[in-house]
Amino acid sequence: MLKEAISYSIDDNASVRVVQITDPHLFADPDAQLLGVNTAQSLDAVLNTINAVHYPADFMLATGDISQDYSGESYHNFVRAIAPLELPCHYLPGNHDDPRIMRLNMQGPKIFGQRRILAGNWQIIMLDSTVRGKPGGHMSDSEIDIIKSAVADQPDRYTLLVMHHNPILVNCAWLDQHCMDNGNDFIKQVAELPQVKGLLWGHVHQKLDQKHPGKHGMVHLMATPSTCIQFKPKSSYFALDALQPGYRLLELKANGTILTNIYRVPGDNFSPDRDASGY
Ligand SMILES: Nc1ncnc2c1ncn2[C@@H]1O[C@@H]2COP(=O)(O)O[C@H]2[C@H]1O
Ligand SMILES: [Fe+2]
């Protein structure tokens, strides 16, 4: 595993620029909807918005729940949808992805499932927080071992840890039951590593930007809106938000700091069924 890293030739004193999209929940059927939103069309709208802002990204991170129906075709639809951006795409599984079907079908010259990305002064580690058959997550000891050996292998690189599930609660009781169930312990362990500068995830279909006091400085904690339906923040029961689909841009600077923000599709073309009680 460790040797399987994808390297980008980016100068050590240059920033690494990343686009993150997450939770597209695609179907084999391009006309299918999730709670009233055509997820293929909302993904296209996000990708068109990313294209329009001409962010000089080096690569894209796709952080899970690529599929909603576990079909191989849904992954082919994803690969086809992102092709016009001509960006390398690194992916990891969410609770709605079957890792085997995902690996088999997320195929293309610029599609990567490798665990490690080396770029500029940074190492990005793609983690699997899924628990087979469950919506909630867990960061296993073997995943934490991957982090520790990757950091030991590249001790002079700043490190961004990327995963699907939220390691901290988002104050939505209905949703927090599906969090990473050992998130506190996970954060405690990785905050001990001076190289770790940020944790990035999806799953909660809403924006979150917090700082966690690590042993060697603040660690960014970042969640990114879905490219389809949005969950209403701080709602104890299942509730959708009228906010539009979104994505995140990150600039991983050569000095280890992270500049980042989330952005949303303009207009209000995507309004979900607000009476929906779940899926
Ligand atoms: N009404 C609900 N109550 C609890 N969980 C739900 C509800 N609706 C959907 N979910 C689950 O919560 C998960 C959160 O986001 P996911 O897209 O991973 O998949 C979702 C479903 O598995
Ligand atoms: Fe999810």
Secondary structure layout plus pairing:
Elements: E1 5-8, E2 16-21, E3 33-34, E4 37-38, H1 39-53, E5 59-62, H2 72-82, E6 89-91, H3 99-105, E7 111-112, E8 116-119, E9 122-126, H4 141-153, E10 158-162, H5 173-176, H6 183-191, E11 196-201, E12 208-214, E13 217-223, E14 230-231, E15 240-241, E16 246-252, E17 258-264
This protein binds adenosine-3',5'-cyclic-monophosphate (CMP) and fe (ii) ion.
Architecture overview:
There is one protein chain. This protein has helices at 39-53, 72-82, 99-105, 141-153, 173-176, 183-191, and strands at 5-8, 16-21, 33-34, 37-38, 59-62, 89-91, 111-112, 116-119, 122-126, 158-162, 196-201, 208-214, 217-223, 230-231, 240-241, 246-252, 258-264. The protein has a single domain, classed as Purple Acid Phosphatase, chain A, domain 2 (4-Layer Sandwich), CATH 3.60.21. The strands form four sheets. The protein has a seven-stranded mixed beta sheet, with helices on one face. It has a six-stranded mixed beta sheet with strand order 7-6-5-2-16-17, covered by helices on one side. By secondary structure, it is of the alpha/beta class. Bound molecules: adenosine-3',5'-cyclic-monophosphate and fe (ii) ion. Adenosine-3',5'-cyclic-monophosphate (CMP) is lined by residues 23, 65, 95-96, 135, 174-175, 178, 203, 238, 277-279. Fe cation 2 binds at residues 65, 95, 164, 203.
